[in-house]
Amino acid sequence: MISEIFNDIFNSVGYVFQSASLVVLLPIIAISIFAGLRMQKVTAIFGWIFEATVILGLFTYIWNWLSAPGWLSFGVWEAQTIESWNALMRLSLQELIGYFAVFFLLILLIFVTKRFARG
């Protein structure tokens, strides 16, 4: 049973890396590095995962809005808001688990590396 759980989690991680664009992967890595360096205790990792997910959502929303033609008009802002909300609601459970797992692994990796570097 444990092997099936880990298999599903790592399949979700693979799905995220296969389907995400560079515009999404770079902020994931940057946010994870920032969170891993700022985290003081390993017990705070779940708070950082949720914070990182919110930051990624806001970054994606702002990126989509500013890259739309005519982004200064209210109509474009409204359309991008609706489109971003619909994209968020379309995320499958596999994608959500994948993003959480990617953040968990990267933040934990940075945190453990930082701890070993300090000695």
Task: Report on this structure.
The protein has helices at residues 2-19, 22-38, 45-66, 74-90, 93-118. The chain is mainly alpha-helical. The radius of gyration is 16 Å and the shape is globular. The model has no long low-confidence stretch (mean pLDDT 84).
Alpha-beta classification? mainly alpha
Q: What is the count of DSSP helices, taking H or I runs of 4+ residues?
A: 5
Helix content: over 70%
Shape: globular
Question: Whole-Å distance between the termini?
Answer: 37 Å
Per DSSP E runs of 2 or more residues, the count of β-strands stands at 0
Strand residue percentage: under 5%
User: Regions with pLDDT < 50 over 5+ consecutive residues?
Assistant: none
Kindly report the average pLDDT value.
Answer: 84
What order do the helices and strands follow?
HHHHH
The Rg value, from CA coordinates, equals 16 Å
Describe the main β-sheet briefly: none
Main attributes?
mainly alpha, 119 residues
Summarize the helices and strands and which ones pair or pack:
Elements: H1 2-19, H2 22-38, H3 45-66, H4 74-90, H5 93-118
Helix pairs in contact: 1-5, 2-3, 2-5, 3-4, 3-5
What's the quick description here?
With 119 residues, the protein is mainly alpha-helical.
